[in-house]
Amino acid sequence: MPILGILASSTRVAAGDFESIATVTVGSGGSSSVEFTSIPSTFAHLQIRGISRLGSGSGTLPTISLQFNGDTGANYASHQIRADGSSVSTDAGSNQNQIAAISSAGNTQTASVFSGTVLDLLDYANTNKFKTIRALTAADFNGTGWFDFRSGLWRSTSAVTSIKLYGAQSFAQYSHFALYGIKSA
Amino acid sequence: MPTTYEPIATTTLGSAQSSVTFSAISGSYTDLVIVINGALSSGLASLSVEYNGDTTVGNYSYTRLQGNGTSATSARATSDKGIGFVAQDACMTIININNYSNSTTYKTTLTRTNSNYSSDGRTASYVALWQNTAAITSIKLSASVNFNSGFTFTIYGIKAA
Prior knowledge:
The complex is a heterodimer of chains A (about 180) and B (about 160). Chain A has about 180 residues and is mainly β. Chain A has a single domain, classed as Sandwich (Jelly Rolls), CATH 2.60.120. Helices cover about 0% and strands about 55% of the residues of chain A. Chain A has strands at about 5, 5, 20-25, 30-35, 45-50, 65-70, 75-85, 90-95, 100-105, 115-120, 130-140, 145-155, 165-170, 175-180. In chain A, the strands form 2 sheets. A 9-stranded antiparallel beta sheet of chain A has the order 2-3-14-5-10-11-12-7-8, with no helix packed on it. Chain A has a 5-stranded mixed beta sheet with strand order 1-4-13-6-9, with no helix packed on it. In chain A, a hairpin with an 8-residue loop joins strand 10 (about 115-120) and strand 11 (about 130-140). Chain A is globular, with a radius of gyration of 16 Å. Helices cover about 0% and strands about 60% of the residues of chain B. Chain B has a single domain, classed as Jelly Rolls, CATH 2.60.120. At the A-B interface, strand 2, strand 3, strand 5, strand 7 and strand 10 of A face strand 5, strand 6, strand 9 and strand 10 of B.
């Protein structure tokens, strides 16, 4: 079952420049995806911060994909640079059906380790530009590990109103993603 | 809505010292961000961390990506508390500790760190692991040489809905 982000209370006590929009914490049954929907266009940028681990069958180094606004077409591209503790490599994909956005811990890796991610989506509400993301996403397993810088492109000028994160396997319990909005002056 | 991204504490060193500790960290945030800025008297030194007073080095490890203007390299270490470096001339480090207060997962730290030391310029990213499920309530930052007067350390808390 996908989990929809829980919208923060609309009762605003004090406005800030960095606001929590919604948060998802995966429960004991796991979740096939995490979705943030009905994202308001009142911010300049978005940031997703989280920890993740995929469940049974995910092995090592599973990737979490990202789609915007329910678009499943071949409108995405991505690049990455990866450091694995001994060497540095790069990878890329074009005309993809999703952005390969996040490197996650998998079920065969050291128990209790979750990867960390900080993902930025800039100018997400602009209707004149394609949308670009960047992500710092990494995990260390005390003897193995990697650090990835990833970037992604969605070839659409639509304002982003929903974000779906999903893997080939379900998210494990305690995976957690929080969506924030960043305001400009 | 309460403030989402707020400073918890700031320390500006009035004299050189070997470490800075943030203690009694509230569990009321979702993530922590620490920003460090300053310059050493000389050279480049490792930046290390200890959580909750845990001095057992076997509980710490990291994997690193680094570029120095000539090449990009990667390294890892186990039984090592490293999370970055500090340096002469100018350096800056930003540390992200996501979900620091949960009591079910080991804690993963993402760091971006750079040195503008004219003789040893670098930029690097570290992912560091603390093998402990305890909520983080204190953070000790230290270097292999003293931090100079003027170094600033600020810790922020980020609250999710």
